Amino acid sequence: MVEAGISFHQRGEFEEANSCYQRALALAPDSGKTWHLCGRLAMDIGLLGEAEAFVARAIELAPDGAEYALTMGAVLAAQGKNEEAREFFNKALELNPALEEAYVGLSTTFLAERRFEEARALAEPLSFLGGAVGSRALAVVGECAFAQDQLAGVFKWWKTHGVDLSGGMILHVGCGRATLSSLPAVFQNGNWGEIRLDIDPAVKPDIIASVSEMSPVQSESAQAVYSCHNIEHLFHHEVPVALKEFHRALTPGGALVIRTPDLQLACEMVAQDRLYDTVYVSPAGPIAAIDMIYSYRGFLLDNNVFMLHKTGFTATTLKAKLLEAGFRFAFVRRLGGELFAVALKDK
After folding, report:
1. In angstroms, rounded to a whole number, what is the distance separating the alpha carbons of residues 232 and 303?
2. Beta pairing, strands 285-288 & 207-208
3. How far apart are CA 316 and CA 134, in angstroms?
4. Contacts (Cβ under 8 Å, ≥6 apart) of 25
5. Contact of 210 with 156, CB cutoff 8 Å
6. pLDDT tens across 166-195, in order?
């Protein structure tokens, strides 16, 4: 019964897996392995409180289980209980010093607390390994680079792994009237060319097209794609399509850079009854929560429907959508009313 549950679990058939695990527990209620599997399943579907209780029961039944301590660390870290999580990751290492996943888990707790040097010191030695452990460790190091030195840090780190993004062609999507001079500093070294793409012919782009249908753009033709306050103008169902189009346009190892309103911050402002209070000042003028949600009011005065906002993102949802679109890494920061993200295509 347990093996059948594991098989369902691995295939993502969670209801069937849960049914098998519950039947196994009915037959053997003191099975630490089965309680642990129930905890892993609960964690995978986002029921973290239940996961914590299930894994605690597994540890009670089998206190020497290094894997159980590792899972408890992961569950606690997912809830933001970083200090408690570290206790269990360290316990897992006491039980099994070769458990590399525990070192990565420790690094993620330091990363969450913005203790970047400690996070990097733990993750970097593992980042050159293959498999899931190496990939997770590599992501932690990349997150540290982005948090400490923004795009320049990410590009420098990515270069150590064989991808040089010091120049090339940048596809500027949803460009509006902006040009290369408005892009981030890493693209201002004189080594970048620009192709401007927009759905609005009035801004005189090089390519007139929607970002959700970029057939005029050749696959793997750009080293970077830049999208500034563009993807929030798409309908929700169009976002995955556009992100996959960006991915298609990039060369192996290429970078997608996105700026978009921080919907979480906008909602916090609304909850405080501060709908019209200035959140930040953009080149267009002061931006309030109402502008972040529905579009900058000044842009709508001439009924420019291209400027309407049709969806929004938090840091968590934007990262998830980037990874679902096929990017190997996605790093997202919250910066004064905006989400600033870089996603890297596998090389």
Report:
1. 17
2. unpaired
3. 22
4. 31, 34, 35, 38
5. no
6. 999 999 999 988 888 889 999 999 999 999
